Amino acid sequence: MATLKEILTRRPVAATIRLTVPSGGARPAPPVGPALGQYRLNLMAFCKDFNARTQKYKPDTPMSVTITAFKDNTFEFTVKSPSVTWYLKKAAGN
Q1: pTM, full prediction
Q2: Which residues are in the Large ribosomal subunit protein uL11 N-terminal domain (predicted)?
């Protein structure tokens, strides 16, 4: 059961957006710009934060991102590591 504080601090969610973006390559161009722009989210804040979080990976590594957009035009996001199939294809030389 949720506590009273958790209930009062919940923000209404506008959408959940899932994207695959190259590490360190988030720009306000497609696919990031249109996906976040329709919910009026701050594109540059997302790009800077995403690029900072993924700088430890090699460039052009596909990263899965789940963005939770709230109705007050704020967002939170989680970055997942690249898929195992991407690592296998890379090891095979494809």
Answers
A1: 0.84
A2: 17-75
